[in-house]
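2024-03-11 09:14:02 DEBUG pipeline.ingest accepted 1 chain
2024-03-11 09:14:02 DEBUG pipeline.ingest length=121
2024-03-11 09:14:03 DEBUG pipeline.predict start
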Amino acid sequence: MSKSVLELTPVETAACCSPMIQEPLSIDQADQVSTLLKALADPVRLRLMSLVLSHEGGEACVCDLNDAFELSQPTISHHLKVLHEAGLLEREKRGVWVYYRADHDALDSIAALISPLRASR
């Protein structure tokens, strides 16, 4: 007896499933989330976010982040600045080093958009 498996394309999957959010985004919400997504839409910045989030204690020194890339320190600093200005990273200077940690409110904004089980707050 053969088992048939129904395979759907991404478009067919989206059409048959419940919506990801219960109501459309407001103009302000769309502006806020698009700024965050634009900042994350670069592979280096996306990787930097993952490194900060996975680092012990949820924060990382810029000195720890530089070694993960074959890029110059000024280039890494530029990407970190973009993430900070978008509101995805908070930073704190300690002596000569700068430490970064994720802004969880910003991450929650993105999660609320893409999560099928949106938590009410």
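2024-03-11 09:14:41 DEBUG pipeline.report The two ends are 49 Å apart (CA to CA).
2024-03-11 09:14:41 DEBUG pipeline.predict end
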